[in-house]
């Protein structure tokens, strides 16, 4: 009910909707409409009520909730099933459970705080309460196992585009899975998969995205302060997390569908547009092997290419860049 009421108010944007219209549309009494309006107000929504004109939503609270995330969300599948929890160990674990229970493609598990957030290479990921977004999206792509790493790059393009469009900040992708603003990390991506090796087929993948939104510089642990940033630190403004998440869902659906319909080659150019260190000298660490060269982009499969001083091109499948 709360979600439906928010949906109606959101659709009206700058107009007014009368109590009668809402009660007809939602099939409840006007008294029930009034009661739910009061509940929304208690949660921090500012709803203006003008006699003979009706209701208008003037401001939303800075909260993450299923109703806030889904109100006006214009995707087909991504985020249309969303489970929100204020505090979890890791959204990745909940997403795996949801998959086992048969949840549809595009389901999102969202949390405001994680106590055991996981990053790549077994590193911890900090997701503090009220200021960050942690989301894991369950997808069921029809691809082979060797194509699976491309999803990290597809997600990075979506996250970079969504953050750039929302904030106008200079967003960059640092291969393979980090989103940077002004040389500091604002977002990280972790993809995990389940596959059927005998038939070389992916059954499902879970895309985990952690976003630093409204943290102040002092909120970051000391060892991260020089390396991490948030949208607040970069812009001096607080951002409504539900809007940022909606923008992420929309961009993710667009780039995921492009990938499925046209292949990774259609994403390559946009990835390179956002790439930090493009055509710059870098060091790639792959286990105990180090490759030094100029980054010349990614190939049609999404594998990073470095050209060394002898002109030899090295393909980098995994690891970290310096
Ligand atoms: C990294 O930079 O190493 C990746 C960080 C990924 C963090 C996200 S937050 C949502 C999801 N849940 C987790 O436990 N990890 C991912």
Automatic annotation (TrEMBL):
Spell out the InterPro entries in the cross-references.
aa-tRNA-synth_II/BPL/LPL, ArsR-like_HTH, Bifunct_BirA, Biotin_CoA_COase_ligase, BPL_LPL_catalytic, HTH_11, Transcriptional_repressor_C, WH-like_DNA-bd_sf
Pfam families in alphabetical order: BPL_LplA_LipB, HTH_11
Keyword list (alphabetical) reads: ATP-binding, Biotin, DNA-binding, Ligase, Nucleotide-binding, Repressor, Transcription, Transcription regulation
**In the record, what terms sit under GO molecular function?**
ATP binding; biotin--[biotin carboxyl-carrier protein] ligase activity; DNA binding; transferase activity
Q: Name one GO biological process term.
A: regulation of DNA-templated transcription
Every BPL/LPL catalytic domain range: 67-260
* Catalytic reactions on record: biotin + L-lysyl-[protein] + ATP = N(6)-biotinyl-L-lysyl-[protein] + AMP + diphosphate + H(+)
Keyword Chaperone assigned: no
Output the PROSITE patterns linked to this UniProt entry.
BPL_LPL_CATALYTIC
Q: Name one GO cellular component term.
A: cytoplasm
Residue ranges the UniProt entry marks as DNA-binding: 19-38
Give the transmembrane ranges: none
* E.C. no: 6.3.4.15
Where biotin binds, per the record, is at 114, 118-120, 185
Q: Report the function annotation for this chain.
A: Acts both as a biotin--[acetyl-CoA-carboxylase] ligase and a repressor.
Tell me the PANTHER family matching this sequence.
BIOTIN PROTEIN LIGASE (PTHR12835), BIOTIN--PROTEIN LIGASE (PTHR12835:SF5)
Family that this chain belongs to: Belongs to the biotin--protein ligase family.
Q: What protein am I looking at?
A: Bifunctional ligase/repressor BirA
Q: Where does this protein come from, organism-wise? A: Salicibibacter cibarius
Organism phylogeny: Bacteria, Bacillati, Bacillota, Bacilli, Bacillales
Q: Which gene encodes it?
A: birA
């Amino acid at each position: 009910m709360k979600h439906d009421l928010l949906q109606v108010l959101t659709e009206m944007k700058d107009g007014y909707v009368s109590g009668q219209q809402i009660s007809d549309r939602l099939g409840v009494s006007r008294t029930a409409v009034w009661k739910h309006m009061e509940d929304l107000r208690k949660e921090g929504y500012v709803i203006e009520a003008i006699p003979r004109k009706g209701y208008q939503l003037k401001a939303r609270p800075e909260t993450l909730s299923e109703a806030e995330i889904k109100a006006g969300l214009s995707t087909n599948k991504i985020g249309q099933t969303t489970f929100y929890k204020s505090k979890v160990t890791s959204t990745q674990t909940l997403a795996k459970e949801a998959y086992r229970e048969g949840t549809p493609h595009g389901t999102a598990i969202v949390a405001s705080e994680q106590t055991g957030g996981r990053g790549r290479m077994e590193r911890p990921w900090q997701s503090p309460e009220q200021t960050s977004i942690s989301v894991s999206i369950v997808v069921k792509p029809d691809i082979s196992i060797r194509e699976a790493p491309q999803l990290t790059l597809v997600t990075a393009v979506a996250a970079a585009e969504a953050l750039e469009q929302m904030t106008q900040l200079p967003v960059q992708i640092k291969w393979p899975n980090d989103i940077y603003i002004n040389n500091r990390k604002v977002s990280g991506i972790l993809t995990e998969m389940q596959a059927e090796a005998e038939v070389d087929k992916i059954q499902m993948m879970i895309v985990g995205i952690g976003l630093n939104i409204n943290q102040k510089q002092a909120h970051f642990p000391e060892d991260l302060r020089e390396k991490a940033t948030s949208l607040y630190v970069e812009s001096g403004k607080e951002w409504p997390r539900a809007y940022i998440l909606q923008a992420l869902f929309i961009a993710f659906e667009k780039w995921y569908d492009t990938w499925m319909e046209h292949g990774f080659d259609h994403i390559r150019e946009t990835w390179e547009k956002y790439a930090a260190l493009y055509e710059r000298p870098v060091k790639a660490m792959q286990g105990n092997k180090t490759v030094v060269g100029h980054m010349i982009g990614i190939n049609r499969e999404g594998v990073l290419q470095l050209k060394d001083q002898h002109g030899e091109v090295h393909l980098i499948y995994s690891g970290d860049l310096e």
